[in-house]
Amino acid sequence: MPSSSLTAPLDMELRPDKPAMLRVEPPADAASWADECRDALRAQVTEHGALLVRGLGLRDADQAGAVFARLAGPLMTETEAFAPREPRGAGTYSSTTWPANQPMCMHHELSYLLEVPGLMLFACLTAPGQGGATAVADAEEVLRALPAELTERFEREGWLLTRTYNDEIGASLAESFGTDDRAGIEAYCRSHAIDFTWDADGSLHTRQRRSAVVRHPVTGRRCWFNQIAFLNEWALAPEVREYLVDEYGADGLPFNTRHGDGSPIGEDVVQLLNSTYEAHTRREPWQAGDLMLVDNIRTAHSREPFTGDREVLVGMAEPRRLGDSGPTGEASGR
């Protein structure tokens, strides 16, 4: 089948341990190809939750950004980042800054926002030497596999994200809120249901409660949708967690997650979440030029440890304010 054809069915590669894959011949103009094939590609994302397109030959940020825009329309500007990214064009970013030898556990991007990205787009410009896959996991399957007692509590109470902003670790105030002006930050927090307090040294502490289980806006199916495991202290390497607790105290970690009632989440819960994710993980090593589309609500994604250079660009699109993703209480800045 010609790579740009919309009249014949796509010749998809489907395996239970890998994301759905489409191999194409490099088009003369990747952006025009994306524009022509948009509906067919997006239908595959709807059906499978994620789609890897191999052979597209993406080479630079401008080309990747143009493909992203043709496939998704306007791209989102990231807010409330937990770690720095480098802007690489309008709505196009580098991958999150994170140690190469440490995994980024399965999560749904920016699931602690009130308006979340419905679609994630990834473009691999430089493949790593080893590892570094952006793996995916079906959030409907994960929800069904988790113990009902656990998911019912999180569904009832939600989950709590706590953050402490400092000048050393994680995203800065300006990188997260678009400003370092205190009044502007407070206005943002109040309008986005985030509790906040300021320390005498000027550091900011925030708390925001969000739903852990949501209904997909298209299918209506329930999805395990959060970053409970990824942003929890027990997901950190032991030596990293020990350093951060010694340096900032247990209540001053750059980020942490709790039950919706504010009580701690045990290490056993984080291990259970991550082992359940692993049992439902689909992975395929990156090749230079690859494109991946991920339904951010139905599908969690991760970044595995890697060696060598790795350049994967990211775009976020289709903001969704889910009917059941908001907090159950009101924010009250103090």
TrEMBL record:
Stretches of the chain forming a coiled coil according to its record: none
Residue ranges annotated for the TauD/TfdA-like domain, each copy included: 30-315
Cofactor: Fe(2+)
Organism this protein belongs to: Streptomyces actinomycinicus
GO MF entries: dioxygenase activity
Xref: InterPro entries: AlphaKG_dependent_hydroxylases, TauD-like_sf, TauD/TfdA-like
Protein's name in the database: TauD/TfdA family dioxygenase
Keyword tags: Antibiotic biosynthesis, Dioxygenase, Iron, Oxidoreductase
